[in-house]
Structures are given as C-alpha cells and as structure tokens.
Amino acid sequence: MPxxxxxxxxxxxxxxxxxxxxxxxxxxxxxxxxFWDAADPVTGLVPDRYPSDQTQASVASVGFGxxxxxxxxxxxxxxxxxxVERTLRVLRTMLRLPQNATPMQAGGYHGFFYHFLDHRxxxxxxxxxxxxxxxxxxxxxxxxFARSFYAKxxxxxxxxxxxxxxxxxxxxxxWMLRPDNRLSMGWSxxxxxxxxxxxxxxxxxxxxxxGLGASHSALDPVSWQAWLATNEKRWGKSYGQxxxxxxxxxxxxxxxxxxxxxxxxxxxxxxxxxxxxxxxxRAVYAQRSxxxxxxxxxxxxxxxxxxxxxxxxxxxxVRHDAGQERHFMSYSARGVGRxxxxxDGTLAPTAxxxxxxxxxxxxxxxxxxxxxxxxxxxxxxxxxxxxxNPSYHDEGQKDFWADNTYLGIDQGPILLMIENWRxxxxxxxxxxxxxxxxxxxxxxxxxxxxxxxxHEAVPSVARQHAHxxxxxxAANHA
Length: 478
Known about the structure:
By secondary structure, the chain is α+β, with helices and mostly antiparallel strands. The protein contains 17 helices and 21 strands. The strands form nine sheets. A five-stranded antiparallel sheet has the order 3-4-6-7-8. A two-stranded antiparallel sheet has the order 1-21. Strands 2-5 form a two-stranded antiparallel sheet.
C-alpha cells in the first residue's frame, strides 16, 4: 500500500466509491514504483519493459519517468532530494550522450534521440532503431515537466532547470520538417528520413505543440494546419459517439497526459463546438460501447471490461475455437474507430487506466472489474500487467493468456492520468511552462486557462515571450 498518501483538498471523488478510490491510490503507488525500481542505477535510463531479459532503455519511458518522480514527491512516495538526485542523473546522462550521424556511436542527432538506447551506455541500441521524433517528444515532455516542477532556488534545482533548457533548446525541429510542413516520424544514418510523417489526430499532437513553442528552430503555425489536414475525413460517428477518430486509445492519452485541453480550442475544434479533451472522452465511451456490442464475440467483453490500445499480445498465430478461426497477435496497436478496427480479444488495462482523467465514472469501474475478475493473474507488484487475453488459451489449458511484464509507455499514461484526475498536478505544472503556452497560442488555441480571446492569440505570444530569441531559419530537407 502507498505510504500515507497525500490527499489534495480539491480532489473530487464524486460518484466514485471508497473502495474504488482505494484501488486508484494503490494502483498509482504501484505504477510509480515501476518507474522508480526499473531505472538503471548508474545512468538513470528507464527500460522499455521491466522485468524483462531485454536490455534497451526507451527514451519515451524516460520522459514518463521524469514526470513520475515529481508525482512521487507530491504524493510522499519519495523525498524531494531523492527525486532531485534521480532527475539530475537522468538529465546529465542525456546531455552527455554524443549527437552525431555515426551508426552506433551516438545517442541521437540534431537534438533528437534514438527510440531505444543501451541502458548502460546510452548509445543507439542497434541499427534497427530509428531516431524517433515522437519518442523524443515524449522525452521532452518529461524534460519540460522537470524544468517547471523543480522551481526552488537551490544549486541542484537550478542545475535541473539549466540542463532541461539545454536539452530542449538543442532540438532542431526544422531539420525534421518535410517540405509539406509536416514532421517526419524519424531518421536513420542508413536510410535517411522515414517516409512516414505525422498527420491527423494522434499522439503526434505533442510534436507540433512543442515545435511551435520552441525558441530555437521553431515550427511555423502552418505546420499545425498541415497536421489538421485530414481531420474532416476522420470526424464522424463511431459506436454512438461523434468525434475525431483515432483507433487505439494511446493516441488520445499521450499528449493529454501533460497538456490540459479542457476549455481551450483551436480554429478547427471551435468550429466543431468541442475541445480535444471532450473529443477523447467520447473516444473512451465509443470503446466501451464497442465492447458492449462485442461484434467479434470475444470472451468477457462488457460495459465494465474493455480497452483496446497498443500493447503486448499472446502470439502471432491462428487458432480454431468452436469451428471459428481466430487470429491472434503479439505486440500490436489494437483499436476501434472509423479508420480501422484491430482486435484479437487482448485487453490492455492502460486503455482504461490512461483514461481515468477523461471518464473516471467508467474507466475506474473497468479497472475494478478487471482486477476483481482476473486480479490473481494480472495485478501484482507494479499494478496491472501490460495486457491479457481471456479468449486465448494454450493447447489443453484452461488458463487465459496474461502478460508477465510491464511497458513504460503503458505504465506512464496510467500514472499521469490518475494524478491529473486526483489533483491536476501534471497539467497545472505544465501550464507554467512557456514552451507549452507558446506552442498552444501559436497553434491558435484560445480560451480557458490560456485566458485570451481569439483575436489576441498571436499578440499575446509576442508580449509574453519577447525575451526569447527569434528562431533561426533552416532549410527543409528533401
């Protein structure tokens, strides 16, 4: 159980039973412990999965971890000096990693980092690992959180702020920019820039907010419009909800884990009479409705047991069950929406856990139901395992498949979104960060906590950030 958990005066548990509140507090503590225990003791790098015989660190996991440590301080799980020391270890490691175009003697290039790093050296894990724009963005969200959270006038906390500024300011956003003003998904020394790029509502949202908010090599607002270009194709009705679709729930969770979109709107969402928070809330409800209807006739799907997102799975195989051919998958981006549906009966608790801030009234109920029904197999030292599949059984076995490990990119949304629901800590910390505010304003967001009417959006940026140097112009790559 969590040590004496700190309660916040403004926590609201209306409609949530005391038993469920206790579950959420326990889950938050256990999930935090994953980030605290999993990190390499020397470099501070956080693994992609743990416990596991794999050895790669994930820069996305590091971003979630940097945020987790601030949550740990606030909740009393660790002391502030402990979190400061861990945060400094991580930031010093990231800053000293070589940045160059060599195949295996770098941790990154142009300020971006490779998706996976060797946890001991911090260098590129292997030649199959790409320099990842989105994983760098997840890392930078954690870096910016640390920059704003550790605000005391001490030697250690000043160093955190200095390291965070250096790491963020050296990201060359325009180097990753395509001629069509969209950001590439990545680059490698062997193949150059990836053909895939970020377009449409997804976790890529954070990339554009960060790039627009940068004081060096910043994106232009036209990039936000380029990212929005496919919205009309993906806006529509799905399982009783009308919203901007993205099939796996992680795409609705990652950016929202750090940025509070309640009550703020850009031009596109304003025209729809919706904000992006409400949009993702509707996506959660659509997933529950899908599970209620259960068109694939998967085992145990219901109004209280649901959740499709990117996660581990039992195996890439075909099984025959009651005369029906069933296709199962290992790690896959499962989801349901207008763009696609991919489902093999695998449920990922992070789908509900990372949606607690969106729809606590159904997400917490789902977590409780999954724990009550399957808890012996799926709830342990670090909370919920990554995934389980009640429809998949090994030959001659009655037991269903359950994972034996945890993934940082699935643990992260659980922890951050629970804390956002409980106290708003991550959201409120990031509201004080000028990069986030500048990025939202330059994307055209107005209202709510931004406090600016539409016609003042751009002038507000100029007034509030006049001290920032003008971003240098850089040529787009081919």
